[in-house]
Amino acid sequence: MTNDPALHLPTPTRSTRSAPTRSSSRTARATRRRAVHLVALVALVAVVAGCDLHRARPPGDAPLRYRDEVFADVAVTPGLPYGEAVTQEGETQTLLLDLYRPVGDTVTARPAIVWIHGGGFRQGTRTSPEIVDQATAFARKGFVGVSISYRLTATGCFPVSASCLQAIIDAKHDAQAAVRWLRANATTYGIDPTRIAAAGTSAGAITALNVGYGAEDVGDSGNPGHDSTIRAAVSLSGARILTRANPGEAAALLFHGTADPIVAYASAITTVDEARAAGLNAFLTTWEGDGHVPYVPHRQEILDQTTNFLWWELQLGQAAR
Q: Cα–Cα distance between 230 and 214 in angstroms, integer?
């Protein structure tokens, strides 16, 4: 005789299934919600584990500070001096920045971003439209931002020359002075000195990456005695030049078009490969067929991926709220 208990169950003479009660319906809905949240969490963990941080949206109900725009208005304080340095023409230049802060914010330790304009190291201003747009968007998310002016050269980098190479070095030193200014004024402007990033376009992107790498070369553009390092760098149409990634330095997110005629796409690939070889997080978003600084058609993608990247690299889930 078989011992299978299923063969000994009594056959029901009528259905014993009862109609669902209001309580059981609520329980079922709650179970489904938990299942959906669990699936989303598993997907997020898989993405993060796969090191695709710039595509991993931070979890949490909206509005979530540092992910979502939680402030309606932004205060801009223009023309604050952050240092001074001698130009290639031998003149002393006062270095200025514009400060972006969310209006009505009571948090006193906020992550900060140094925004760096492009222009071939020959032209451009700290009020470049894509810089202003990003600095404003991230201030609405709860960041403090500074958009900086830096030393330029009359000849720029077309063609590449000794003056061009010196301008690249000067820009790095000036941006590092801005990082030190943030730390020197952290209490005054409500900045978390442990959570600072740099971001830029074209020449500014090159500069942001150069600030991320090779922190032993800091120059003397201002605010001595403070740390010049950052935790993350964001590049739109840039690559590292005259620097090289070392273990323990900044993570990087690069956006680049494959048809860029100014900064070759291959240079962005090399930057990412070298950073990864040094054990650093480095990510590249590629736009097939796009040229130099295609900000407008990719604006939302840039904002979203930069938000995700900074959330994880600056550990904003543990930042002051």
A: 11
81 vs 228: CA distance, rounded Å: 17
DSSP state of 237: S
Name the DSSP class of 78: E
- Over residues 202-261, the pLDDT tens digits come to 999 999 999 999 888 999 999 999 999 999 999 999 999 999 999 999 999 999 999 999
Q: What would the DSSP string read from start to end of 243-301?
A: ----TT--EEEEEEETT-SSS-HHHHHHHHHHHHHTT--EEEEEETT--S--TGGGHHH
Which helix H or strand E contains 308, and what residues bound it?
Answer: helix 299-313
Q: Give tens-digit pLDDT for 83-103.
A: 999 999 999 999 999 999 999
Name the residue with tokens 């290639």: 88
**Which of 103, 127, 105, 107 minimizes the C-alpha distance to 117?**
127
Biggest alpha carbon–alpha carbon distance for the chain: 104
CATH of 61-318, one of 3.30.365.10, 3.30.1120.10, 3.40.50.620, 3.40.50.1820: 3.40.50.1820
Q: Are 275 and 250 in contact (CB under 8 A)?
A: no
d(CA 243, CA 169) in angstroms, rounded, equals 10
> 3-class DSSP state for residue 116?
strand
Residue ranges per domain, the chain?
Answer: 22-51, 61-318
Q: Which two tokens stand for residue 182?
A: 């943030």
What's the CA dihedral at 179, 183, 188, 192 to 10 degrees?
A: 100
Question: Quick check: 190 and 144 in contact, CB under 8 A?
Answer: yes
